[in-house]
Amino acid sequence: MRARTMLRAVTLVLAVCLAAPSLARAQTPGAGAPPPPSVKVGDTAPDFTANYLTAADANGKRDRKAVKLSEFRGQKNVVLAFFPAAFSPGCTSEVAKYRESAGEFNSNNTVILGMSVDSVWANVAFAEKLGADFNILSDAKRDISRAYGVFDDNSVIARRTTFVIDRKGVVQKVFMAQEALDPAQALATCALLKEVK
After folding, report:
1. Alpha-carbon gap, residue 62 to 55, rounded angstroms
2. What mean pLDDT is predicted for residues 55-74?
3. Is 91 a catalytic residue?
4. CB within 8 A of 123, min separation 6: which ones?
5. DSSP alpha helices (H): ranges in 108-174?
6. Residue-range domain boundaries for the chain
């Protein structure tokens, strides 16, 4: 029993040591430019269904809910913000800025969907820590980040990329790396889209 516990601890430490350099590179300002995503401006955004957990009720119970991108078609613009890892410094800053701007996105008829390859449990803890009042979805199987061309096989994370998708489901803007850290440009794009009927 003791040997099994020790083996698990060593495995966990080894995994963290192997992942740390990749996460550090993904978070480093000024790091080499990432390859562009496969989904471009003018493309129809690939549809997906992704899960999140609701806030805990009075008994501590959470419900697993699903969001399907196409449910917003014809109704709302969508800002789909892929980020590398919950609780990392860059992602904490990015999600906090989205939280601060959430009301402005709302008034521009836009829903914010955060997305990472972290589990639903990690994402709900991250959202609650930051007080984010928008859904942070889990792409734990990595199919969605691969479909958008933002999955980094070497680092095993989704590269920081924000897609602004209009009510027709068409990608209007793509922001990558440092440019995606601040939602101001995405917000400006959504303000323009609000005017388009």
Report:
1. 6
2. 91
3. yes
4. 52, 53, 86, 114, 116, 136, 137, 138
5. 120-130, 143-147
6. 35-195
The overall average pLDDT reported for the chain is: 80
Residue 43 clears pLDDT 90, i.e. is over it: yes
Name the burial class of residue 148, with classes exposed (0-12), middle (13-18) and buried (19+) by CB atoms within 10 angstroms of its CB.
Answer: buried
pTM above 0.90, yes or no: no
CA-only gyration radius of the chain, Å = 17
Residue 136 predicted with pLDDT over 90:
no
Average pLDDT over residues 144-169: 91
| Residue from 50, 80, 91, 174 carrying the catalytic annotation | 91
Q: Note whether 115 and 136 are within 8 A (CB).
A: yes
Residues 32, 35: Cα–Cα separation, whole Å: 9
How are the residues of the chain apportioned to helix, strand and coil, as percentages rounded to the nearest 5? 40, 20, 35
* pLDDT band (50, 70, 90) for residue 176: confident
Nearest-angstrom CA–CA distance, 151 and 181:
17
| Domain 35-195 indexed as CATH 3.40.30.10 | yes
Read off the tokens for 57.
Answer: 């009720």
- Indicate if the alpha-carbon torsion angle 137, 161, 29, 32 is positive or negative: positive
